[in-house]
Amino acid sequence: MQSPLSADVTIREVVESHPGSDRVFGAHGLPCAGCHVSTRETIRQGAAVHSLDLDALMSDLQRYIADGTVPPARAKPAHDHATVPPPAKTRKPGIKHVVAIMSGKGGVGKSLVTGLLAVALRRLGYEVGVLDADITGPSMAKIFGITARPYQGEDKKPHPPASRSGIQVMSMNLILDSDSQAVIWRGPMVSNAIRQFYNDLEWGALDYLLIDLPPGTSDAPLTVLQALPVDGVVMVSTPQGLATMIVSKALKFAKQLHVPVIGLVENMSYFTDHETGKRFELFGASKGVQLVVESGAPLLAQLPIDPALTQLCDDGRIEEYEAPDYTVLAKNFANVMPTAAAAGVGD
Ligand SMILES: Nc1ncnc2c1ncn2[C@@H]1O[C@H](COP(=O)(O)OP(=O)(O)O)[C@@H](O)[C@H]1O
Ligand SMILES: [Mg+2]
């Protein structure tokens, strides 16, 4: 018997191992199955980018592999894929806003911005949860200093543990036996873990669920933006040219998946020498304006490099950090959220 085909293999692999299957992709409106794009694009990504029905495509591919049937060409959608409405996603009652924090590349401070945004929103009186979708490189439990595992509540459901200030946090570290245990998982397993964190945990009533994505545009960001009811994305970048170039790609990715970019954060914008008060732009001049023009989204904050902050994160004490820039970030964030003002503080 054939083992079931996974949506996370590349289109090229399918076409190579099942000659003629490019006709199935073609019938679904993916004529580029034989071109270079397919070498790296998985079936899931191809379907997302071209707004195709993934389940129907998968079942037609399975059928082709089983008995060689090529389906008739599907009717073309009436509109360009950029205007096709996104598929309906199940919202969890009780969670008012789901926001994903994204970046084009790693090490730009995305997890740190997620953590600080959570802290700042909590200080403004909101109920906040953090879902660490970086399954293979989790960091949220560490920066909040949380070691407790998810626990069973009186309702017999699994609940995420809470930080000292009451932020609920779920991260892969919290269910691994040791912090240094490596997670070597394939795309579908990562996607399932993220879905389970969202669906199976009892988050309770939250004003904001912040999702810390792994860098780039791989399977995990795709799962989050496609399968979870994400209201918007906050894009984190640094002034470094390369980071800005890659963030442009991430901006396009969010657009193709119909998720609005609600704001930009430029991290590591500058460093202030506290003795002289002088400001240094270590990674070059700000690219904030360029990003605002490109994305049409507001710049929520330009955050400085602060060695004290690195230390607090390493010690699991991010909640003790005090700096005005982060209050500005949280206030701007709450202002740009579509219905945040209407939701009110802590109601
Ligand atoms: N503004 C900042 N000031 C000081 N340290 C920072 C700042 N932003 C990030 N860092 C540090 O840089 C490292 C990488 O940040 P992290 O948030 O893990 O990046 P990412 O999630 O984008 O990979 C961490 O050690 C973090 O504490
Ligand atoms: Mg990270």
Number of strands: 11
Most strands sheet: 7 strands, parallel
Task: Based on Cα principal axes, name the global outline.
Answer: globular
Bound molecules: adenosine-5'-diphosphate, magnesium ion
Estimate nothing, just give the exact number of structural domains. Answer: 2
H/I helix tally? 13
First-to-last CA distance: 55 Å
Can you characterise this structure?
Residues 79-85 and 340-347 have low confidence and may be disordered. The radius of gyration is 21 Å and the shape is globular. By secondary structure, it is an alpha/beta fold. The protein is 36% helix and 14% strand. Strand 3 (151-152) and strand 4 (158-159) form a beta hairpin. Strands 5-2-6-1-7-8-11 form a seven-stranded parallel sheet, sandwiched between helices. The chain has two domains: 11-83, SP0561-like; 95-343, P-loop containing nucleotide triphosphate hydrolases (Rossmann fold). It has helices spanning 11-17, 22-27, 43-49, 54-67, 110-123, 140-143, 187-200, 219-227, 241-256, 288-295, 307-314, 324-336, 340-343, and strands spanning 95-103, 128-132, 151-152, 158-159, 168-170, 206-212, 232-237, 261-266, 271-272, 279-280, 299-302. Bound molecules: adenosine-5'-diphosphate and magnesium ion (MG). Magnesium ion is lined by residues 110-111, 134, 139.
